[in-house]
Amino acid sequence: MNTELLGIIATYLLTVILAIPLGIYLSKVFAGEKVWTDFLKPLENGIFKLSGINSKEQMNWKQHMKALLTINLVWLVYGFFVLLQQDKLPLNPDGNPGMTPDLAFNTIISFVVNCNLQHYSGESGVSYLTQHFVLMFLQFVSAATGIAAAVVFFKAFRDKTTTALGNFWDFFVKSITRLLLPLSVLVAVVLAFNGTPTSYEGKDQFISLQGDTVHVSRGPAAGFIAIKHLGTNGGGWFGANSAHPLENPSYLSNMVEMISQVIIPIAMVIAFGYFIRRKKLAWMIFGVMTIGMFLLLLPTLSSELGGNPAIAKMGVSQTTGAMEGKEVRFGPTASAYWSTVTTIISTGSVNSMHDSGMPLTGLWQLLGMMINSFYGGCGVGVLNYFIYLIIAVFISGLMVGRTPEFLGHKVEAREVKIAALITLLSPFLILAGTAIAAYVFTNHSGAAWAVQPKTWLNNPGFHGFSEMLYEMTSSNANNGSGFEGLGDNNVFWNVSTGFVLLLGRFLPIIGPVAIAGLLGAKKFIPESAGTLKTDTMTFSLMTFAVILVLNALSYFPALALGPLAEYFTLFK
Amino acid sequence: MKTSNKLFEPALVQTALKQSFIKLDPRVMVRNPVMFTVEIGTAVMAYVTVYSMNHSGQGSPVYNFIIFLVLLLTVLFANFAEAIAEARGKAQADSLRKTREETPAKLLLANGKTEMRSSSQLRKGDVFFCEAGDTIPTDGEIIEGIATIDESAITGESAPVIRESGGDKSSVTGGTKVLSDEIKVRVSTEPGESFLDKMIALVEGASRQKTPNEIALTILLASFTLVFIIVCVTLKPFADYANTTITIAALISLFVCLIPTTIGGLLSAIGIAGMDRALRANVITKSGKAVETAGDIDVLLLDKTGTITIGNRKATNFHPTAGLSPNTFVDACVLSSLADETPEGKSIIELAGTQGRPHTNKAPEDSVFIKFTAETRSSGIDTPDGRRIRKGAFDSIRNIVQKAGNPFPLDIEEEVKAIASNGGTPLVVAENEKALGVIELQDIIKPGISERFERLRKMGVKTVMVTGDNPLTAKYIADKAGVDDFIAEAKPEDKMNYIKEEQVQGKLVAMMGDGTNDAPALAQADVGVAMNSGTQAAKEAGNMVDLDNDPTKLIEIVEIGKQLLITRGTLTTFSIANDVAKYFAIVPALFIASIPALQSLNIMGLHSPESAILSAVIFNAIIIPILIPLALRGVAYKPIGASALLRRNLFIYGLGGVVAPFIGIKLIDLAVGLFV
């Protein structure tokens, strides 16, 4: 078999093999059972003592969400001002300037919401201080926020009827001390030994064979790159993200980065099943997510390996597939795999230029982000999936002639209302955002702004439409990757995506947690032969159909005008 | 009262057609958000049609007019579905109401005289008098007397029934006829407030409230509608970017096709049809919610007598003690039962008759009959010639025998045990304090009842038999009939406790009852079905009244409830699944002019953009009347387990919903293509 294919198969298998025990371990950590990392308890207790937190205090879902939103707001304000003033602060050996307010607004939001859209470039836009104490800090805490929210959701279904859903700070701190921090150290060490810089010195330079002086940015990057993947953040130390030779030096580092971005999302699904003692349900959810991933990955592989007809016409042979925008050390197969996982989970790091992918590759990437729950981001993937599941529970419950119920709790008007609102939110943000952008581009292309709208797209037409659609989709999904042909560092994109990011992050966290909280407080109904079981193949198929149909119906016209139109034109 | 089961009776269709137009009133339409947006779209198209007559850019006025017409039809079809369901329900209720039109009533005055009044003048608390041949003017409770009554006007059952004061069979219904004797009846409801009146109001819509599941579904459908509003509104700037002009007609057509009009149009019809089906089963429901809850029932409490077994126990065998001739024993049995008016006593004489010992003689003159009392638990006869025959429960007779110093035969004792363990009831007979033998009484289980319980088990409903029998007998019958659990030696409070226990575990319980002492349990149960013959208190406490007094009716009610939910669920799935094909018809049609490559998406090979859009909206409109019969009859419920049922319905209505419009739109396009 083709070595390149073997490479990604091995990567995926390794991911699953590592994720399963990790998931079981996580379920124990959050259930408060004995685990080998308990030696960290004194550290956690110290943190709680220092912050004056009683980590034993039980919270209901509303108190959880209040805690979550408050601390996120604190980070937002703190980070915004540091980014604005970074030029005046220490640890800035390259003398990079402070951010403009709109860029700082966009950047801080995008890091708080675990997106890392990055309308700046790491080499010139930030200092080592902000990389460390704002951006990397947020990469840890935003991932931990998502995981803690998911654990609150788990907790609602562990007991029959309960409103005591554990303590937010407890979940949050443990997500970092027991999961993110140890794994990040491990991954950072591997990356450092593979050539990723870990120095506090400023730019290095050398004289190339042509005789030019080349400045090479560096910095303490390895730790940043580790949490960027483990926390499904995706924001690169360098502008070129993991396509950069120092950020992702070899095939091995590429494998490590691919594995580390997928293990926690898969582990969270497994943890869900073990935590609520319904392993079969978790495996069914994992099955749906995995099939969904392969349905996006296989056509991506085929479209990338098939090569580009425009290049074929020029008489260039493409034995390895479409190579435009790809790194030779990874090749199209590993790049296609990366581009799939980075869009289905909300990492958004890249090891190839998504803008250069084949039209259909763009379609699958967009779909992956629109669905946003085939594994999905750290913690939030399970929450997103839960919304689809509730809709599926409701419709199929009716179809078997019973008031719909999930895990013994009746799903009624209030829960459906929340689920419907969250379902509505994504198409609203993505389509309305893209529509406003398209409107401005079409009707006000010459507006006297610092960056004229007509210069946004380096490739107008169908592909340009895809670039705008991609940017909004990526923001709504808190993904952070981009079709980089878009000129996005200007007031319009910084501000509009900033709002999409905020809404696309917090409402889809609050919604599922609220539904879970409401359901968990309801009377528990034991299963009978008439109860629709949610851990069966049939129900999984139903959920899959709901995911597919809801997304297809919401985005078909937009996708037809972007990637589909481009594809049919190119291959006509 | 059985009425024709035809779906579309001409008279009803006529009323419904008229109602379809009356319901166009936006103030009424707004209750149904999905169809309300279609109505707005229709209004916009009316304007566009007029506008396009003297402006260019919005297509031809004729084409716009046709789209307008199709959209108007869509709304009318939906209104018609609701109207025909209402009309059918009303017709059904009216036929019941006819039985209680103005009838003369003999009002009993304080001075004891009667005065003729019209039934509509009777108020709650009034007392009226009825004798043989009178039609009972209104619902009430017998306070004095006993009468045989013909209830066929209500139940369709021709055999007369006995109603008497005091007991659990004291209720009479307006419109029924007294056949013999005379009764005094106290009016129990104000005019216009009887259950039937409430039911009619429910069907007519004035007081029809959406059920919880209906509300939840409406929210979901409204959110789908909102998603499609977003999709269609944003399409305008998208098209501008792609240098394509989209006419208002195309945009509105796309919108109307995408929103779930099929289920939106049929939703209220489905709900009304559910209540109507209950009414056709002769069950009056006090709310739509009760029907829906019935579908969720986990536990069904059923009285043994009348539901599981036919009426009362019957004598099936005589077992004389060793050495006694069978005839002597049978004769003694007959003698002891001559004065026994209970069904058991009668059955003993019947059985004796079949064994060649008909009771030709009456009891000897001057015989003293000993009545059954709870204390002695035996009855019998003392004849003038000194025979003292007693029959009764085993231990009471043994007491009598042993007290007199006589031995109690071992073979009788064994026979008693054998009978009891077979679910029978042994009656021991003794003469002059000497045991003679045992009469075996057996319950006769209704034919076909165990199949019904099997069906309920597959639905996930647990059946519980309630009986006054001892646990041994109860267990035998429970096993034989196939119920899952039983309450033996049940007192009214036992029922109540059982219901509460199940409810604490989160289960929904249904029960049927008639007596006043059932009332608390009926109120406690999630679905309480009172028999129409039952007391007023029982009828007030329950949330349904069964006009047929048929205890197996609960099973039908559960199925009606399930059918109601299934019909909603499957039509929602069908409606949403339809959208896939509609996209493939309309999206290429919108953009083909400026992006010819999108012709590849026209996988149905539709004739032209105009015909494609028109075919899609026509399909969208006619699918509503096509599905009206299904909405009214309900999707069949099959007790095959939840997962299998989901698979089946997902296949038929999900996959079918994806495929059907591809075929339908293509066929319509072939026809439309001839003209466009």
From TrEMBL, chain A:
This is Potassium-transporting ATPase potassium-binding subunit. GO terms for molecular function: P-type potassium transmembrane transporter activity; potassium ion binding. The keyword Ion transport applies. GO terms for cellular component: plasma membrane. The system is composed of three essential subunits: KdpA, KdpB and KdpC. Keywords: Cell membrane, Ion transport, Membrane, Potassium, Potassium transport, Transmembrane, Transmembrane helix, Transport. Coiled coil: none annotated. The gene is kdpA. InterPro entries: KdpA. It is a multi-pass membrane protein. Part of the high-affinity ATP-driven potassium transport (or Kdp) system, which catalyzes the hydrolysis of ATP coupled with the electrogenic transport of potassium into the cytoplasm. This subunit binds the extracellular potassium ions and delivers the ions to the membrane domain of KdpB through an intramembrane tunnel. The chain crosses the membrane at residues 6-26, 67-84, 133-154, 175-193, 258-276, 281-301, 374-398, 418-441, 499-521, 541-565. It holds the Pfam family KdpA. It is found in: Cell membrane. Belongs to the KdpA family. Its main location: membrane.
Automatic annotation (TrEMBL), chain B:
It is a multi-pass membrane protein. Part of the high-affinity ATP-driven potassium transport (or Kdp) system, which catalyzes the hydrolysis of ATP coupled with the electrogenic transport of potassium into the cytoplasm. This subunit is responsible for energy coupling to the transport system and for the release of the potassium ions to the cytoplasm. One of its GO terms (cellular component) is plasma membrane. It comes from Pedobacter nutrimenti. It catalyses: K(+)(out) + ATP + H2O = K(+)(in) + ADP + phosphate + H(+). Residues 105-204 form the P-type ATPase A domain. This is Potassium-transporting ATPase ATP-binding subunit. ATP binds at D340, E344, F372, T373, A374, E375, T376, R377, S378, S379, K391. The keyword Transmembrane helix applies. The gene is kdpB. It is found in: Cell membrane; Membrane. The chain crosses the membrane at residues 28-50, 62-81, 215-239, 245-270, 583-606, 612-632, 652-675.
